[in-house]
């Protein structure tokens, strides 16, 4: 009996995954910036949270989650530690968290992406699926931001312009 080994080609590299995520983050940053200051913190539709609160959630998850993955720490993230008062506060923190994401993402080895990790003690999936969750969550909330901007009569950034 003869067996044949087939080499599996990698679909996406970790660098490409980070670039994809950062492209979404760049677009979300532009959505934040498109809001008038008052509406960023106060406007909502159908009882959903204002976009500033959604942005704080996204800021609170990415870097802390990657740090948790790198350090194998399953503690929950905390949205209470950052309480912005201005759009500039949010954009500054967004940029700082981008650097935190880059720092910790680079410390995850290719092998670790396949390991199961209990993110925040709630979501037990392979590391790569946790990272895809961050992207999915961001897209979901950015969609809410698009609805808010359109309801305010503001044209949101084109969703395909991520860089």
Describe this structure in words.
Keywords: Metal-binding. Belongs to the DinB family. This is Damage-inducible protein DinB. A divalent metal cation binds at residue 141. A hairpin with a 3-residue loop joins strand 1 and strand 2. The protein starts with 13 loop residues before the first helix and ends in a 12-residue tail after the last helix. With 163 residues, it is mainly alpha-helical. The protein contains five helices and two strands, in the order ααααββα. Strands 1-2 form a two-stranded antiparallel sheet. It has one domain (28-151): Four Helix Bundle (Hemerythrin (Met), subunit A) (Up-down Bundle), CATH 1.20.120.450. The mean pLDDT is 91.
Shape: globular
List the quaternary state of the chains.
single chain
- Number of DSSP-assigned strands: 2
Specify the CATH architecture. Up-down Bundle
Helix and strand run: HHHHEEH
Structurally, how many domains make up the residues?
Answer: 1
Describe the structure in brief.
The chain has helices at 14-34, 37-42, 51-71, 87-105, 127-151, and strands spanning 116-119, 123-126.
Keywords, please?
two-stranded antiparallel sheet, about 160 residues, mainly alpha, Four Helix Bundle (Hemerythrin (Met), subunit A)
């Amino acid at each position: 009996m003869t067996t044949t080994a087939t080499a599996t080609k990698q679909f996406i590299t970790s660098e490409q995954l980070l670039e994809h995520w950062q492209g979404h983050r760049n677009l979300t940053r532009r959505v934040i910036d498109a809001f008038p200051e008052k509406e960023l913190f106060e406007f909502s539709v159908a009882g959903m949270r204002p976009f500033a609160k959604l942005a704080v959630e996204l800021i609170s998850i990415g870097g802390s989650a990657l740090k948790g993955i790198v350090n194998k720490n399953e503690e929950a993230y905390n949205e209470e530690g950052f309480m912005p008062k201005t759009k500039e506060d949010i954009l500054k923190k967004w940029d700082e968290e981008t650097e935190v994401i880059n720092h910790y993402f680079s410390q995850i080895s290719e092998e670790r992406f396949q390991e199961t990790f209990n993110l925040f003690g709630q979501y037990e999936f392979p590391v790569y699926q946790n990272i895809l969750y961050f992207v999915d969550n961001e897209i979901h909330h950015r969609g809410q931001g698009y609805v808010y901007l359109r309801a305010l009569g503001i044209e949101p950034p084109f969703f395909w312009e991520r860089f």
